[in-house]
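Q: For a teaching handout, I want to show students what a protein-ligand complex looks like in token form. Below are the inputs, and the small molecule is S-adenosylmethionine. Please produce the holo structure.
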Amino acid sequence: MGPSLSRGAGEGLLTAFAMSDAPSQPSRRLYGRRRGRPPREGRQRLQQELLPQISVTLPQAGSLDPKTLFPSRPEAVWLEIGFGGGEHLAEQAERHPEIGFIGVEVFENGIARLLAEIARRGLANIRIFADDARLLLDRLAPGSIGRVFILFPDPWPKRRHHKRRLIAPATLYRLAIIMQPGAELRLATDDRDYLAWMLEHATAHPDFLWLARSPADWRGRPPDWPTTRYEEKARAAGRAPAFLRFLRRSA
Ligand SMILES: C[S@@+](CC[C@H](N)C(=O)[O-])C[C@H]1O[C@@H](n2cnc3c(N)ncnc32)[C@H](O)[C@@H]1O
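A: Here is the structure, written as tokens, with S-adenosylmethionine included.
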């Protein structure tokens, strides 16, 4: 169920595949800070007590079937990378109890926020991978993920930092492997340059089909797409976000 390499853009992605297929420590840092102010006492307790219960641990060898993380054996598993404060993830998890969710985030204060939300809403269908998303992407089983959200990833606007952008051929290549045919990839950004970059890379990938038919399709947030703190900040600063939906094509 891996991505097709027979079509043109596949060749250019071979290098990315070679890089991303090696289950090793990522060589380059893609994210900003891991820690802010110390979380409040209640949140610290959740980090000590709740986080170990719902943390994703990678297997010693082989790939991870994400459904095995949930005793309820969900219909599908959806993945959110860089969930920030977890507003979108918690809301989706509450709306979809039949789905298992994996949230990935490196920023401890964001993880603490999500833990508080999980406890407040009594959510049993979220697991957290508190490390670099690339480590998890390398190990998820092929065709095991039903939907992926990467909302407002850091834009790294300086040209010399573009190589840190999360949306890149190596990431798209891994996503195409772990996503089921027909699965949806949702991206958002408020940065015009990153928007052009996302579209360039995702539409060049042979396994992803951009679903927009008119500007209205990407200028407005669909009703089943809860807002995030970052989106609110962007709007308050006068920046209009874009909401992109791609289909993982069938082989
Ligand atoms: C600009 S914030 C957006 C947060 C959230 N999605 C929102 O819309 O409010 C980007 C987030 O991605 C996280 N992040 C960046 N690179 C990451 C990586 N390689 N693995 C996991 N998280 C990452 C950062 O820690 C940060 O919280």
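A: Two things your students might notice: The pocket of S-adenosylmethionine is lined by residues 30-31, 81-84, 104-107, 110, 132-134, 151-154, 166, 228-231 (CB under 6 Å). The first helix runs from residue 8 to 12.
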